[in-house]
């Protein structure tokens, strides 16, 4: 009996050592590596299981890399052409493009984020405006509708979606829907089967099963995209949930930001959707779908940037870092989840200490207790550096927006947190336009008036039990 125990112990120690070596070779941030090592050492079996499911770094393996295609080659060649000839393009005559040349080139390099002109962009600042615009666009569809969401929940809003989509499917349109299997875990099998019976193609992104893909549960598709006929696109922070039907001042009301885009940037969003569709369904549509190309360059310059475990770089983290660190006058940020990590914290503090007006609106409360306390763990340090922080009180703040210097705004799906930077598939639209920036700046003032400013002196005097919750949550945040 003793030899069995000794054998199991030796085997476990060998396995533990191999896992430790693997973690070190992954070359993650030291804080993340040490947190995982401590977790595994103090809670051995549970720690190893959690690491297998949530801790491994697959970015370098490019496990989701789509095969090369003619379309992708053209797409990448176009990005390279823009990178080397940006100053020769007509778009370069626009002041925001000139002044943000380095940011544009960074995103062309790290994620092949093509810059396009000929766009009309409308900012949608709540659920009512967003879904009214979406349903109006869906009614105009003549050829196909592509839909991708992290969270789709059954309810009044989804029923309205399905009513419109079923009518379009009956008329012969191709309807394709991707939903994230974890984000939409409440979506019943019966509902999905009913949708399929309507002639609508609906596929989950990486359903969680034991076996081959069990260790991929940590990588979720957080993108929100709608494409209508290759002519109109929507992206931003809103999911399909009845929270967006709640009235303002209701505790269930979600304040969020979305975009309606018409123009060449729609093609770039189409490429994102079709890549994800190929991954989840195996159906190759790059050379089959129609896109509307706008010849003129007049309009708003837009750059669509993606990030995920399939990318070479943490491109959206680099986007945020560059946008913050290169701000000269101001940078305003809305985010529901704020676990910035060392790099973004450094950029925020340097910007504020340099005299840049740095302001962040966060939700007063959160739908996740550990994320609420993780967020608050960073507040005192930022306030001390001169960053102005506000807790939104009119509902739940869910917007993911950065705007800077009346030159560039980022609106999309990525939070200012390390999960969005490293684990989630995300998409942001960068808009280089003074009018859009000023519109968002005005909206920030409205949201700021609906928020409570966090004062350094008062916050510093918070109870010790709150500090303990913050420190514990921050310590555990690399595991999330």
Main attributes?
single chain; 480 residues; alpha/beta; Endonuclease, Chain A; 3 domains; nine-stranded mixed beta sheet; seven-stranded mixed beta sheet; 18 helices; 20 strands; 44% helix; globular
Average predicted local confidence, pLDDT: 86
Q: Which descriptor suits the 3D outline? A: globular
Question: How can the largest sheet be summarized?
Answer: 9 strands, mixed
Tally of DSSP helical segments:
18
Low-pLDDT windows of residues: 210-215
How many domains? The number is 3
CATH architecture of the largest domain: 2-Layer Sandwich
CATH superfamily of the largest domain: Endonuclease Chain A
Measured as a percent range, the helix fraction is 40-55%
Helix/sheet category: alpha/beta
Strand segment tally: 20
Rg for CA atoms: 23 Å
CATH top level label of the largest domain: Alpha Beta
Write the CATH fold name of the largest domain: Endonuclease, Chain A
Terminal-residue CA separation: 39 Å
Lateral arrangement of strands in the main beta sheet = 1-10-19-17-16-11-13-14-20
Characterization of the model:
The protein has helices at residues 2-25, 30-42, 44-55, 70-85, 95-99, 101-111, 127-139, 156-170, 189-197, 265-281, 315-325, 341-353, 369-376, 379-385, 418-422, 434-449, 456-460, 464-476; strands at 115-116, 120-124, 144-149, 174-180, 201-205, 225-228, 232-236, 254-255, 258-262, 302-307, 330-334, 338-339, 357-363, 388-392, 396-397, 401-404, 408-412, 416-417, 426-431, 451-453. The chain is α/β, with parallel strands linked by helices and 480 residues long. The chain has 3 domains: 2-57; 70-97 and 117-300, Endonuclease, Chain A (2-Layer Sandwich); 315-479, Endonuclease, Chain A, CATH 3.30.870.10. It has a 9-stranded mixed sheet with strand order 1-10-19-17-16-11-13-14-20, with helices on both faces. Strands 2-9-7-6-3-4-5 form a 7-stranded mixed sheet, sandwiched between helices. Strands 8-15 form a two-stranded parallel sheet. α4 runs antiparallel to α6 and α6 runs antiparallel to α11 (315-325). The two termini are 39 Å apart. Mean pLDDT is 86; it is low at 210-215.
